[in-house]
Specification:
The complex is a heterodimer of chains A (375) and B (376). Chain A is mainly alpha-helical and 375 residues long. Chain A is built from 14 helices and five strands. Helices cover 67% and strands 5% of the residues of chain A. The two termini of chain A are 34 Å apart. Chain B has 376 residues and is of the alpha/beta class. Chain B folds into two domains: 215 residues, Response regulator (Rossmann fold, 3-Layer(aba) Sandwich); 124 residues, Rossmann fold. Chain B contains eleven helices and 15 strands. Chain B has a seven-stranded mixed β-sheet, sandwiched between helices. A five-stranded parallel β-sheet of chain B has the order 2-1-3-4-5, sandwiched between helices. In chain B, helix 2 packs parallel to helix 10, helix 3 packs parallel to helix 4 and helix 10 packs across helix 11. The longest helix of chain B is centred in the first third of the chain and has 24 residues. The chains are: A mainly alpha (375), B alpha/beta (376). The interface between A and B is large, with 43 and 35 residues.
Chain lengths: 375, 376
């Protein structure tokens, strides 16, 4: 038998199902039907509870979005899945932890201007903490890029990927050392007090301690508010930056074709570093917001959110900025709503099944374009 | 000539005796298996502190039956695989015949199987799951004991306590993958419903979850009066911090997993948990223990330290009572021992569980204080 010539068999029934994406569409249709039926029921049964769960999903979705952007931007420009990204997020959370509990950065305005309105002082203090974390993460990511990824830029892609996993483990287990962060769970001190508002028949009120939520009302905390507002501001800024500035144009040009961009006078190395820095800064902000919402920091805290944000980026179409945001919001809702209405222990399984089904139908993700492979 | 032979024989006998003492009889080696790093490292450090204090006290009194006690500490990380490795290491390499540990049930259960197979006496200070001292067929493991009460008892105590306080409805949150948490949740539910309470909701989560908003929204919606969360302090800190923000008014209750210096008192404010002992207990043995511990470690002993101390004392008292360090005889002595320990007067039942009181502690205004003592 001639071994060099592959035997071409007619595709089996199952293979043809997968190839023509019939299976994907079938599954997607089925899932959508079940979801619409289940969620529709839930909405009719108790609209305020449903809305409440959607708000919960929105909060975690925006955090994922901020992390997912870093994955997608870096992938877009250097075709590298930066697995250390989740750990940069962790460093962001820890930076803010030290800024708050050791040097009390969130209180600097109060110390300097005691007469300032406490609300404004809190806002400025929190923003300073977020900015510090963003700066530290950006610096860290640029260092990682220069030390670990740049020498491998022309190596096979798998080498850079393995290096990324190595960097990820390094950041985690270096952080776990006793003179760094320690391996313990550390309670995070929020830079401001939590306020919960009740939005119901009687307008907006502050929920008092021990007061029950009235029927039909939904509650909204300043934490959800800050996460959503800060995320939207950062997303708008990023969109503006990428579309309207010179560096943004350079980034897009480099992502499209690195060689040609270089010939056109784009400083490719600087552009790639900038991309890493911006992605990491967003992850740093996400780290602070995440730690404020779930007030506990530990060295491995970046793994799960990092993985989920990666999934969100793939779901939305890796390389696409709007895709990352949409993917993250879908993932946030899928997680929260399946925990709320289907099964709590299965929520991750359900969220990841959605990914598989979407990829069966659209292998490039929701917003992804079929990338032409460069030589 | 005869005297020469006699001297020679005497010399040989003397040599043999001293060799014997140097080889196996001089010290009693005891292994401490506890999580010295990781998620619940404070548990391991406290436990070991308690054990070391007991060892010091016994050695100061001249040891057990004239033999000094020596400890081997192994980091078993509160989980099955590292605990199995640590147990095999101390039994095979260090040749210990006695193990104090592990702290967590999920690690103690596999260790107990190794101890039983190697005929090594194991006394776990704090593992509350029934499976630690029981074989799969329900018979008692001959060499395995514990110094704490068991899960059914903690779940039952909290159910009893909740009903006594007039609460009628409860919501249970538990980690499906954790033997300890599941055990407490199960027995709480059983005792609570049997005594006329109603469990209005039950949700499980996984160890790595941080976002509990979906579950807590359900808790708020269910209007339950009690939120039973028998997990360890990191999860309690996270859930407590989010619960208030999600409008949960239920009183949080849990088990001894809450007992840690790292429990976020603000997040757990208004909560209650069952425990093995309280430093506020006026009994003289408790007060002298607290004073000695404070002198050495400059901290108030938590329940982990106390049970580590009790477990070590129970073991040493049994060795003394048996008059030998033969593990089989020591296990028999332990089963029939009656000992006045810090956490109460302890006797062992047929399943090697101690029979003693439990305390309920309350978290209020940044303080953990004694609330009630509940009898078995």
């Amino acid at each position: 038998m001639n071994r060099s010539e592959p035997i071409r068999k007619a595709p089996s029934f199952l293979e043809s199902l997968v190839q023509r994406r019939t299976l994907g569409y079938l599954l997607l249709g089925l899932v959508l039907l079940v979801a619409i039926w289940r969620l529709g029921n839930a909405l009719l049964e108790n609209p305020s509870l449903f809305l409440q769960q959607v708000t919960n999903g929105l909060q975690i979705g925006f955090v994922y979005a901020l992390i997912a952007l870093g994955y997608t931007m870096v992938y877009g420009i250097v075709r590298l899945i930066n697995f250390a990204h989740g750990d940069v997020f962790m460093v962001g959370a820890f930076t803010s932890f030290y800024a708050i509990s050791r040097i009390q950065l969130h209180l600097w305005t109060r110390a300097l201007f005691p007469d300032l309105n406490p609300f404004i002082a809190d806002v400025i203090g929190t923003i300073s903490v977020v900015l510090l974390s963003m700066a530290v993460c950006a610096l860290l990511a640029v260092t990682i890029e220069r030390v670990a990824y740049k020498p491998l830029r022309n190596a096979p892609r798998i080498s850079a990927l393995i290096t990324a996993i190595g960097v990820s483990f390094f950041l985690e287990y270096f952080g776990a050392l006793n003179f760094v962060y320690t391996a313990n769970y550390i309670t995070y001190r929020r830079p401001f007090d939590v306020i919960t508002w009740v939005i119901g028949d009687q307008g907006v009120q502050v929920l008092q301690k021990g007061q029950e939520v009235p029927a039909g009302a939904i509650i909204f905390s300043n934490i959800s508010f800050i996460i959503i507002v800060v995320s939207i501001i950062l997303l708008v800024l990023l969109q503006y930056f990428v579309k309207n500035t010179r560096t943004g144009k350079a980034m897009r040009a480099t992502a499209y074709d690195r060689q040609t961009a270089r010939l056109m006078g784009v400083d490719v190395d600087a552009t790639i570093s900038t991309t890493f820095a911006i992605g990491a800064a967003l992850a740093g902000a996400a780290g602070v917001l995440y730690a404020i919402a779930y007030p506990q920091v530990v060295f491995w805290m970046g793994i799960i959110p990092g993985l989920k944000a990666f999934v969100a980026a793939v779901l939305g179409g890796i390389g696409s900025i709007p895709g990352a945001v949409v993917g993250a919001l879908i993932l946030g809702q899928a997680e929260t709503l399946s925990a709320a209405y289907i099964s709590t222990p299965m929520r991750d399984a359900i969220a990841f099944s959605i990914l598989i089904i979407v990829l069966l139908v659209r292998p490039t993700g929701i917003f992804g374009e079929a990338q032409r492979e460069k030589a | 000539m005869k005297t020469r032979i006699a001297v020679f024989v005497l010399l040989i006998v003397a040599l043999m005796v001293t060799a014997c003492q140097a080889g196996g009889g001089g010290t009693i080696k005891v292994a401490v298996l506890a999580p010295m790093s990781g998620q619940v490292s404070t548990f391991g450090i406290s436990t070991n502190n308690g054990v070391q204090l007991a060892v010091e006290e016994w050695n100061a009194k001249g040891g057990i039956n004239g033999k000094k006690i020596e400890t081997v500490v192994a980091d078993s990380q509160c989980s099955a695989d590292p605990a199995v490795n640590a147990a095999n290491k101390v039994i095979q390499e260090d040749k210990v015949k006695f193990i104090i540990g592990e702290v967590c049930s999920s690690a103690s259960i596999p260790v107990s199987e190794i101890a039983e197979a190697n005929q090594v006496v194991q006394i776990s200070p704090t593992s509350t799951n029934p499976q630690v001292t029981l074989n799969k067929d329900g018979s008692t493991k001959k060499y395995v004991f514990r110094a704490c009460f068991i899960d059914p008892f903690q779940g039952t105590v909290m159910a009893k306590y909740a009903l006594d306080k007039g609460y009628k409805t409860a919501f249970i949150m538990f980690d499906q993958g954790n033997d300890y948490v599941r055990g407490l949740a199960e027995y709480f539910e059983k005792a609570f419903t049997e005594a006329g309470g109603k469990v209005v909701g039950k949700e499980s989560y996984t160890k790595t979850d941080t976002d509990f908003s979906a579950i807590l929204t359900k808790v708020a919606e269910s209007k339950a009066e009690v939120l039973f969360l028998p997990d360890y302090y990191p999860i309690v800190n996270l859930v407590g911090a989010q619960a208030k923000e999600k409008g949960v008014t239920a009183v949080m209750m849990g088990g001894d997993g809450w007992d840690s210096a790292d429990l976020d008192l603000k997040a757990a404010d208004g909560g209650f948990f069952s425990n093995h002992y309280s430093p506020e207990d006026p009994r003289p043995i408790v007060q002298s223990w607290v004073a000695n511990y404070q002198k050495k470690y400059n901290a108030v002993p938590d329940a982990l330290a106390t049970l580590g101390y009790d477990a070590a004392n129970l073991l040493f008292a049994a060795i003394q009572k048996a008059g030998t360090d033969d593990p089989t005889k020591v296990a028999e002595a332990l089963a029939s021992l009656e000992y006045e320990a810090v956490s109460g007067k302890i006797t062992f039942d047929a399943q090697h569980n101690p029979v003693k009181n439990a305390v309920v502690l309350s978290v209020k205004d940044g303080k953990v204080s004694f609330s009630a003592s509940v009898a078995p």
